[in-house]
């Protein structure tokens, strides 16, 4: 990922916004992240039921210009996008457009090529399709053509038999799950989301130029290391596993590297307007934290999907060793469930769902607790599934509920 790497030591935190006194612990964690120089700019929002109890932001939105993070500054969410794409696809299933456990070839005949005729929509949504990476290098410009990328994946031979294992489809997920939306609604994922459940939200998958202009610019941390960083929740107390993760992350031939870095975002990395305009359905969302938390608020409240649809969507479909990530992961239909790739405090491990993003971001919902949390930073760690900044915020939110 290509992003600016120099972070000024005098970057102001100036945390602003609203925090209910009962959730003061969230503000304390957020301010501490800035005080410990773990942030450049960031925003966090929490809903308890329909009540917005935390709406905080601070720091710098653009390191190069010193532009401050404002109340309406949106930020790139990386793979947090997948939860929004999944909700769109599941809404179409709820309306009877297709059967989640039915064959993909019923509505996408070409997908049956190269031994994939037994693939179901559930396989696409739960990272079981065997297509975690494109077989050739794909540019950012090519990635903007969603129908062409979907057709390319439909013709591609799977790396394992669909349904016989799972492995994180870091970017290809978007053109697989997104094709459900495109074919069965006639709209892009971004257009469908805006039309159906994000009209009142500052949330885009495929942002207009004025939004791109005021969005936070992503920056890499000077403290990042190839081994995961000292502040990251460790996947295991296994030094050999950590070594293998570091090796796979830098090996251009590894499945992990191929899945994470192809398509390549091009010049400017994930600040590249070509990427932000295209709205990759697997990693292309721009949103404010309050609107992203609002998405989870509405999801938990049954305003996007029926409660029974959501319960079925967050039921773990796969768990255990991930063929891409090399550590344990767990997925429902597009949503992460608590595992080594989705660290959740003990209070939420039975009922929390959501998705992390590569830069440290997270979106989380918990229907039993009535909780919705979103955190979007622009200072990236190098952690595959968030880091302690997000975990500590979520932990403080659960602590406030108890």
From TrEMBL:
InterPro entries: Beta-lactam-related (IPR001466), Beta-lactam/transpept-like (IPR012338), Beta-lactamase/esterase (IPR052907). It comes from the Bacteria. Pfam families: Beta-lactamase (PF00144). Keywords: Hydrolase. One of its GO terms (molecular function) is hydrolase activity. Residues 30-397 form the Beta-lactamase-related domain. Residues 218-237 are annotated as: Disordered. This is Serine hydrolase domain-containing protein. It comes from Actinomadura sediminis.
